[in-house]
Design a protein that fits this description.
single chain; 633 residues; alpha/beta; SH3 type barrels; Rossmann fold; 7-stranded parallel beta sheet; 6-stranded parallel beta sheet; 24 helices; 40% helix; globular
Length: 633
């Protein structure tokens, strides 16, 4: 955890030093206060004739601070300090097996030992670039199991094989890619998530899957990019649970995939489903010591987790049952931050590239971020407003008649139409029409990619829709700029080969990716720029996409560029991503929440504000301005 020995701060507003004590001194807004860190991690300060102490989070919420010194604080010493004898035995075995020759960074070895001190499993939440592929093999080898299994996305099987081939003989990794390969398992086995849930023989039985055939044969399971376990009811989660592996480990740089509640499925999978180590049961109750006397007031684990950590404005019974399905209005904040951190601590081993133990081996400069706002073209703005108005009117009607918008699928479909209208209007919106020209945002992205090519640099562009990728690629081809499209419409083998041959080792200056195809699993340190054509709803998507280029072996500072249309859906998506990132960093990385007190605005509010701004700009009434814009085309 990042901390400081001495802090000076200025009070954000007038407040009482100790609200629980009558006559406590008042700290006035703008008053400067000096703080000194205490041995217990809290900060002491003098007010009047008395001394008061605050936690770091309390301090940050009351004062604007400037740090005079920067240090890192160890919050938990870890299992290796608690049980040194067991840790020493594991270290000796690691050296005897030669694992330390290729897992040779000190923090990697420390974490390997500590992770294997967990009897059931844990989450290795290393940031990208720390060596998770090597950790996966090391966990299996050091555990000494007869059969271990690494599960990755299908498109990443070749990448994982290539990574493991650098440290192990090719024959040491057994790839399960056919019914025949289920017979003779090796110590390290590799399979794709998609194959794991696939029937072995559809003609014989659709119920007998690869997971079914591997059940109880796996001593240690490693799930790469395991944040997919956030939904225990998904087919991929069910397949992983069905394996019934004795020990289970999840590797992911972003264990909180979307909302703070998403970590629930991961810790239930690795730490136990309602156990002494992990009391929040997903299919069981919340394990409480009171059960020894009576279960009269027992709670479901899901209910207790929701009450402790999830912030909701309203919720349907369907969502309350599972925390997955059904409608709700959820605010991306953590209900009880200290308790949330306490809940995660025994199950998550977190590593950040910027922390001292990692920075000894990996030096990555923070990226330089630029936001490019492009003015609307009149025709595009007209189409967008007609689409946005349809959504707003439909949404308000649903709220007026039903009290809340509980048809989640319909909401997503309508918002998707607004997203298309803003970012890919050439596709067309039902009942509104299409745009037969490039938008200002598309032109800006094309011009920037062209300028990067003229610099002799390389860039990765991320967009949601493959149609946008093909459109931009076609425009750049007309300018004699070589790019590599990378999306789901191109077979995996071909697009990966093109990426390696033309972009990584060739003359192409641009890799144009959809976020679904290119955001995870690939190492692209040769990229000088990462461009986000459109925004995402989930912080993890943008984070993983940016980390493709932020690898330990990159040279120079990465430049990240976001393209926005002022007042569009981009603004709502940015707000959503910012709140989700803030909650994740506060809960997982012990950062101080920056947006805790900020209002979370909903889309209809933002649309109304957009129209008000336009009306004020032109000196017209809101309704007149909106009608004028609609007819602009």
């Amino acid at each position: 955890m990042n901390a400081a020995e001495a802090i000076s701060g200025v009070a954000l507003k007038s407040h009482v030093a100790d609200p629980q004590k009558w006559g406590s001194p008042v700290i006035k807004a703008g008053e400067a206060v000096a703080f000194v860190r205490q041995p217990d991690g809290r900060y002491a300060y003098q007010a009047g004739s008395a001394q008061f102490v605050l936690t770091l989070d309390e301090l940050m919420s009351r004062f604007a601070v400037s740090r005079s010194a920067q240090t890192w604080e160890t919050v938990h010493e870890g299992l290796s300090v608690k049980y040194p004898g067991q840790a020493l035995a594991l270290r000796r075995r690691m050296q005897a097996l030669g694992i330390d020759r290729w897992l040779n960074w000190e923090f990697q070895q420390n974490d390997l030992v500590e992770l294997l001190q967990k009897p059931c499993g844990a989450v290795a939440a290393w940031e990208q670039g720390c060596g998770k592929s090597r950790l996966a093999a090391a966990l299996i080898l050091l555990a000494g199991v007869k059969h271990g299994l690494i599960v990755v996305e299908a498109r990443l099987v070749p990448e994982m094989r290539a990574e493991l081939a650098q440290i192990l003989p090719p024959a040491a990794v057994h790839v399960i890619d056919s019914p025949e390969s289920l017979g003779a398992l090796g110590q390290i086995n590799l399979i794709a998530y998609e194959r794991l849930r696939m029937p072995v023989c559809r003609e014989a039985s659709r119920r007998v899957t690869y997971a079914h055939r591997l059940r109880r044969r796996i001593g240690l399971l490693v799930a790469d990019e395991g944040e997919r376990l956030s939904n225990p009811n998904s087919d991929q989660s069910r397949a992983l649970w069905q394996l019934s592996a004795r020990r289970r480990y999840i590797l992911t740089g972003s264990p909180i995939a979307n909302y703070p509640r998403d970590v629930f499925g991961l810790i239930a999978f690795t730490g136990g489903d309602g156990t002494a180590a992990q009391p929040y049961g997903y299919r069981r109750g919340y394990l409480d010591s009171q059960w020894l006397a009576t279960v009269q007031h027992a709670q479901r684990g899901v209910d207790r987790f929701r009450d402790d950590f999830v912030v909701l404005e309203w919720v349907t019974w369907e969502f309350a049952e599972s925390l997955q399905d059904g409608a709700k209005r959820e605010v991306p904040k953590i209900g009880n931050l200290p308790l949330y951190r306490q809940m995660l601590a025994p199950h998550v081993k977190r590593r950040l590239v910027c922390e001292p133990d990692v920075a000894r081996y990996i030096q990555i400069d923070p990226p330089a971020v630029e936001v490019v706002e492009t003015d609307w073209d009149p025709a595009h703005l007209s189409l967008y407003l007609r689409t946005a108005d349809e959504f707003a009117e439909w949404y308000r009607e649903i709220r007026r008649t039903d009290g809340r918008s509980n048809n989640l699928i319909a909401i997503l479909a309508r918002i998707r139409a607004v997203h298309f209208a803003a970012n890919y209007p050439q596709y067309g919106v039902d009942g509104v029409g299409t745009l037969g020209q490039l938008t200002s945002k598309q032109r800006a992205a094309i011009d920037r990619l062209n300028a990067i090519a003229e610099e002799g640099k390389q860039a990765i562009l991320f967009a949601e829709n493959p149609g946008v990728i093909d459109l931009i690629a076609g425009q750049l081809k007309a300018r004699d700029v070589e790019t590599v499209p990378f999306h789901g419409g191109i077979p995996i083998t071909k697009r990966v080969a093109d990426k390696d041959k033309r972009f990584v080792h060739g003359s192409a200056t641009g890799l144009l990716c959809t976020k679904g195809s290119g955001r995870a699993g690939y190492n692209l340190p040769n990229a000088d720029y990462v461009l986000f054509y459109d925004s995402s709803w989930t912080w993890r998507i943008e984070y993983q996409a940016m980390r493709r280029a932020l690898r330990w072996n990159r040279e120079g500072q990465l430049k990240v560029v976001y393209f926005h249309l002022p007042g569009s859906i981009d603004k709502y998506q940015d707000q959503m991503v910012a709140h989700k990132r803030d909650a994740m960093e506060a809960g997982l990385d012990w950062a101080t929440p920056e947006l805790e007190d900020e209002a979370f605005l909903h889309m209809d509010t933002l649309l109304d504000a957009f129209v008000e701004d336009l009306a004020a700009l032109h000196g017209r009434e809101n309704r007149d301005q909106r009608q004028l814009l609609k007819e602009a085309a």
